[in-house]
Amino acid sequence: LAGEQIPLLARVFAIVDVFDALTSVRPYKESMSLEHALEIIRQDAGTHFDPKLAVAFDRIAPVLYHMLNGMTDEAVESLLRDTAAHYYGLHKMEAGSEEGQVSQSNMLQYKTY
C-alpha cells in the first residue's frame, strides 16, 4: 500500500508515533526538542508521512505539546475521556446505575444518547 491507499488512522499514527518517540526520554537517549522533532516530520513529509497530515500536525502539535507536556498521565486520560465523550455524544453515567458501574480504578463510564 502507498499514499492514500494506507488507512487514514495508520497515516496519523505514523506521525504521532514518531513524534512521541522523538520527544520522549528513552533509556538509550534524551528527548528531542519540539522544534527539532517537528523539523524531522517536515523533512519526511511526502516520503515517510502523508504531506497533508504532516502540515496539519505541524499546526496543532505545538499547542497540544505545551498543554499536555506538564500534565499527569491521569489528567491527560481524563481530558481525552471527556473530549471523546463530547465529540461522540457520550454522557457520564452515575456509579451503580443499571447501565454500568464505575470501575475500581475510578474510570468514568459513558453511554450514548
Strands of the largest sheet, in order across it? 1-2
Low-pLDDT segments, ≥5 res: 97-108
Determine the number of helices (DSSP H or I, runs of at least 4 residues).
4
Q: Please tell me what the overall shape is.
A: globular
**Sheet with most strands:** 2 strands, antiparallel
Mean pLDDT figure: 83
From the helix content, strand content and strand pairing, which structural class follows? mainly alpha
Describe the structure.
The protein has 113 residues and is mainly alpha-helical. The protein has 4 helices and 2 strands, in the order ααααββ. Mean pLDDT is 83; it is low at 97-108.
Task: Supply database-style keywords.
globular, mainly alpha, 54% helix, 113 residues, two-stranded antiparallel ribbon, 5% strand, 4 helices
Compose a concise summary of this entry.
By secondary structure, this protein is mainly α.
List the helices and strands and how they pair.
Blueprint lengths: L7 H16 L10 H11 L6 H19 L3 H15 L2 E3 L17 E3 L1
Antiparallel strand pairs: 1-2
Helix pairs in contact: 1-2, 2-3
